[in-house]
Every structure is written in C-alpha cells, then in structure tokens.
Write a structure and sequence with these properties.
396 residues, Beta Polymerase, domain 2, Serum Albumin, Chain A, Domain 1, seven-stranded mixed beta sheet, two-stranded antiparallel ribbon, elongated, binds adenosine-5'-triphosphate, binds magnesium ion
C-alpha cells in the first residue's frame, strides 16, 4: 500500500521521537484500517514521551489537549496528534475518567482502549503490536471488548454504543460476551451526554448497516434507555439510505415515530439549528409529496437534496410508486423560471415606492403572490410588467 502524506508524516515523527530516546507508535483506528487495506484520514501517534518532552523534540507544535496528553505536531506534510501513553483513573459516573495518568508503557496504554481491533499499535518498522488478538478478531469480523466487557462498559457506558457503531461501519458482529455485557449495563447509557450519543449515531446513519445497528440497539435493550423510540417501525431501516448525509438518518428516525412532537428529539440530541431546519423541511416536503403532490412552489422553495430525500422516503416508506426520480426532480427544478427570489428584477423597495405606502406586513404578502405568479408563468419577470401587475392588483 502506498502511504499518503499523513502516514509519511507519522513515520517521520516516530523516527524523530525514537532518535530522542522515546518510544512512539501509530495507534487506534489507523492501524485497524491499515490492516483492512484502507488508509484512515486520521493517523494518531502514542508515545512514551511526556507532552513537554514532545514539545522539545519538534519545532512546531500546538497544544490541543494537553490535559489528556495530546500535542499536535505540525509536520510539513501534515499535522499529527501525538498523545502520551496513559491509563485512565476511576470512573465515578460511567463516563469520562476522573483523571488520566501518564505512563511509560505501551502495554498499559493499549489496555485502556475499547475494542481489540482498536487496541493494536504499529511501530516505525511497521511491526504490529497486538496484545489482545485484534488481528484475529479483524479476520473473524468481530467487535470484542478489551478485557472484561462488563467492567469496561461500566467504566464508560458510551463504549456500548461505540461497539454498535463499529459493527455498523465495518459490518462486523458483536462478540457474545461483549453483547451480553451491553445487555447487562444498558441502563448506564442514560449517564452519557446526548451530544456524545449523537456523534455515534451520525456515524451509524452514514454506514452501510444502519438497520443492523438499530437491531442491536433493540436486542441489547439500549433502546429502553435512549430518548425517543428507536424501535418504532424498525423494519423500515433496511430500506434506509443516507446518501452520505447523517442528518437524513435523524429525519428518517423522526418520520418513523409518526408523532408530531417527535421533532423534539432533535433538541434532546443537541442538533444544530441548521440540522433542525433541514429535518423539518424534509418532513414537510415528504408530507406534501405524499398528500397533494408538489407544486412549482415546492420545487422552488426546497433545495434539491431536501426534495430528493423526501422523494426517497415517499417511495420507500409510503410506497409512492409514480415515476418521480432524482433526475426528474432536478429537471423540474431547473425548468423553473426563477431559481431564487433574488432573481426577481423588482424588490421590496420598488414596491414601496410604487405604492407610496410604508413598509409593513403587506409587503411579504405581495412578494409571495408575485413569486407565485412568476413561477406559474402568469407574470413575466420584467420590471414594467411587474409594475403594471402590481398597480392593477393593488390599486391605491
Ligand atoms: P474513526 O475511524 O471513527 O475515527 P477510531 O478508531 O479512530 O475510528 P476514535 O473515536 O477516533 O475511533 O478513537 C481513537 C481510538 O481511541 C480508538 O481506536 C480507541 O483505541 C480509543 N478510544 C476512543 N474512545 C474510546 C473510549 N470511549 N474508550 C476506550 N478507548 C477509546
Ligand atoms: Mg479517529
């Protein structure tokens, strides 16, 4: 495999640390993905050097997470995160450890990691350090906790969802003891911040196996301790496609709830305003699509991705079987006389001037009407014609 810039930078950094007398290795997801024949975007390094020591070895660094032992080394090829070997202290509340301890042993660092496939390291020589059978689990396509699964999930309950997330991303099964431990500890997921849970589901939605993840969420009984109802009409998840956008997963989840108040879930999971707006538009567009059908105004108001996913949901969930498809949607949208309000050659100020009235709520009503008329080809987007129409429709 030809190594890209990230990897070249990482090996170069390892060499510098080794020359300075420290141990350094590539760890975590990058090693896992490398062994699966894929180059990860993030290449993380772990080292025996303390953060202050890392900073003396390199001329350009940035403190990105010094409390957790992470220094960003700004290598000319690519910046790389370098984290001191550490163990984690006690976990009082089933989430973040109360403290982290820096250690000098790689073995200790690998032991705190969540799953065997994530607990391997690669040395500068490309030799793999695999203390927990990560390679054999990788070939058997299994997600297995490092050490005693129950205590690992009790330390950090998010790991239960991470197990499901990795199983969805990689298409792997969750090993039996690990699965049983999730069932046993499921309640602890309620201690985890909803935004951290959201991050895992975002990754589930864009994976190829969202339906399998939902099945695991149900079978492990995590579903009982998560907000909303992830089991609602769960059979439909096998038809779900995210098209690479995680927000489509949230939209689908809410659609399946068949409950007007379900959009509240977006607040619970701390979705951004942009995400909330998008989901609401998809649901509205779906609603119109499956009742009255879309008018030119709908093609105008909704962005193409919103129309496409609403149509996709309509086909799969509502069994709409007309022949509307993505290219037809794009064609209809492109065929609109105007693509946005800014293309109209007249603006609010013109209307105020022509009417001699003050600005007010009437303005929005007139503009909406004008847009409708232009879109339905009853009015030409031309200054004089719009002025005539306006003075005729709204005489003073
Ligand atoms: P991705 O490709 O999704 O980034 P990743 O394996 O890099 O996958 P991260 O969440 O970026 O996953 O974490 C990096 C590594 O840190 C993991 O591979 C794992 O070794 C360790 N890790 C992360 N979160 C935890 C956790 N909650 N408990 C134990 N180890 C963890
Ligand atoms: Mg990562």
């Amino acid at each position: 495999m030809k190594l890209d810039k990230n990897w070249q930078a990482a090996f170069d950094i390892i060499q510098s640390l080794e020359r300075a007398g420290y141990e350094a290795v590539i760890v975590g997801g990058a090693v896992r993905d490398y062994l699966r024949g894929q180059l990860a975007n993030d290449v993380d390094i772990a080292t025996s050097a303390l953060p202050e020591e890392v900073k003396t070895v390199f001329s350009r660094t940035a403190d990105v997470g010094i409390a957790h032992g992470t220094v960003l080394v700004i290598h000319p090829l690519s910046p790389v995160e370098v984290t001191t070997y550490r163990t984690e202290g006690t976990y009082a509340d089933h989430r973040r450890p109360d403290e982290v301890h820096f250690v000098r042993s790689l073995e200790e660092d690998l032991k705190r990691r969540d799953f065997t496939i994530n607990a391997m390291a690669m040395r500068g020589s490309k030799k793999i350090v695999d203390l927990y059978g990560g390679q054999s689990d990788l070939s058997a396509e299994i997600i297995r906790a490092v050490g005693n699964a129950t205590s690992r999930f009790s330390e950090d309950a998010l790991r239960m969802l991470r197990a499901i997330r990795f199983s969805a991303q990689l298409g792997f099964a969750i090993e039996e003891e690990t699965f049983k431990a999730i069932r046993k500890q499921a309640l602890d997921i309620s201690f985890i911040a909803k935004e951290r849970i959201k991050v895992e589901f975002d990754k589930v939605w864009i994976s190829k196996n969202a339906h399998k993840a939902i099945r695991y969420v149900i079978e492990t009984s995590l579903v009982e301790y998560l907000p909303g109802d992830f089991s609602k009409q769960a059979e439909h998840w096998s038809t779900f496609e995210s098209f690479g956008n995680p927000v489509n997963g949230w939209a689908f989840l809410i659609l399946l709830q068949q409950d007007e108040n379900a959009v509240q879930l977006l607040n619970t999971f701390n979705c951004s305003n942009k995400e909330k707006k998008y989901v609401k538009q998809v649901l509205q567009a779906y609603q119109t699509r499956t009742t009255t059908g879309w008018t030119v105004k709908d093609y105008f108001e909704y962005d193409l991705p919103v129309l496409e996913i609403a149509n996709d949901f309509a086909k799969k969930f509502h069994h709409s079987n007309d022949d509307l498809n993505s290219s037809e949607i794009a064609r209809k949208k492109n065929a609109l006389v105007i693509q946005s309000r800014s293309e109209i050659v007249v603006n609010g100020r013109d209307l105020i001037e022509w009417s001699g009235e003050k600005s007010g709520p009437w303005l929005k009503i007139v503009i909406d009407k004008m847009v409708d008329e232009i879109l339905s080809n009853n009015l030409v987007n031309d200054r004089q014609q719009i002025k005539d129409w306006f003075l005729n429709e709204y005489p003073r």
